[in-house]
What we know:
Layout: H1 5-31, H2 34-59, H3 67-74, H4 78-92, E1 102-107, E2 117-122, H5 124-162, H6 167-195, H7 205-232, H8 234-259, H9 273-293, H10 314-338, H11 348-373, H12 384-399, H13 403-414, H14 419-434, H15 436-443
Antiparallel strand pairs: 1-2
Amino acid sequence: MKFPGSVLVSLVLFVAETAAALCLSGAYRAAGDRMWQWLTLLFALLPCALVQLSLVFIHRDVSRDRPLVLLLHLLQLGPLVRCVEVFYIYFHAGRVEEPYVSITKKRQMPKDGYSEEIEKEVGQAEGKLCTHRSAFSRASVIQAFLGSAPQLTLQLYICVLQQEITAARSIFMVLSLLSIVYGALRCNILAIKIKYDDYDVSVKPAAYLCIFMWRSFEIATRVTVLVLFSSVLQIWTLPVVLVNFFGFFFYPWILFWQSKSPFPENIEKALSRVGTTIVLCLLTFLYAGINMFCWSAVQVKLNDPDLINKSQNWYRLTVYYMLRFIENAFLLLMWYIYKTDIYLYVCAPLLVLQLLIGYCMAVLFMLVFYQFCHPCKKLFSSSISEGLLSCFKFLCFICKPPKSTVLTDKAEVKSPENTDEAWSSSKTIDSQKGNPHQSVSSNA
């Protein structure tokens, strides 16, 4: 049975970040910064409440009549209790013979074009551990992008305004960055396991390293760009954030309305139509929060029974990173034009170059992961290099002007030069019509 290390990492990051947020908010209160205190508490407690709700929803504690567990979740102690339960199950597994086991069928990765199907016995303890791992993975994603990401942006913004980085704030920002990167990593692993649920997937350490580097560069540069832009153009910060957020929030709903599919009713039997709508809105809310800071490996598809798009779409990935790079470059340009005296001793061109190179490094590690380290790369219909090449060809085809307009333009340019030739040819034709003997002799 696999050691539940991911559960322990999720709990450590959750507890450490929450404790650091409470300590830092106390420091803001002592310094008289009420606004920073309340914003820090908001970005710390809101994801805590959402994490408790997600754990209760995944484990179906409401329908199982577990009042003590629900009370502990109300006291924000749910992750701690779940972790204790996980390790109790892990250390007591195998001591008592289980009355029955379930048999699962998984296919191995194809070798030489052949994929073998294997059967595996899964006991009750292992099934419970699998459920806990899945629940903590989803909780880590919620904590990362609805709590840690805005928290890191806020603390870095405060550092820029106050021109000071304290020890407590720096530790808190490091914890927030680690939480975001870990949440993005869990999001990638969840996407792989959901898309290739029929296969026995094993992720190698090289793949974890590529994902970690990819997400670290991507998230760090994105947060830095947003903070720099918001420090000089506060009025335009809210429109930029709202356009990004609501664009990704409504995108799955627009695709769902265009498909004219029936409303999904198979999410949870105990939920009413209103409850299902709330769950779907929370799902798209999380999807928008992820795409605000990085590429979400999981694509929401509301007309699918699993609510996930399982196809590998290289075009959407390419368009996202191209638009995000253009947006980051534009925001950095605005910062460079309107920068204030705060950045008097900062080499602005070098900083802009470093941030753009950092984002390119994120794209480079992403390409390495999908091309060489993806555990299911043998199942791709086309590699990422082929997908990017076809995407660039398509974009070049769109940008290229139509041939018909080019030909008409050339004809219009050449027509004044050839008027004399046209008149001379018409005269020769008329003279031939007027001399019938020449035409008879030519026929003979």
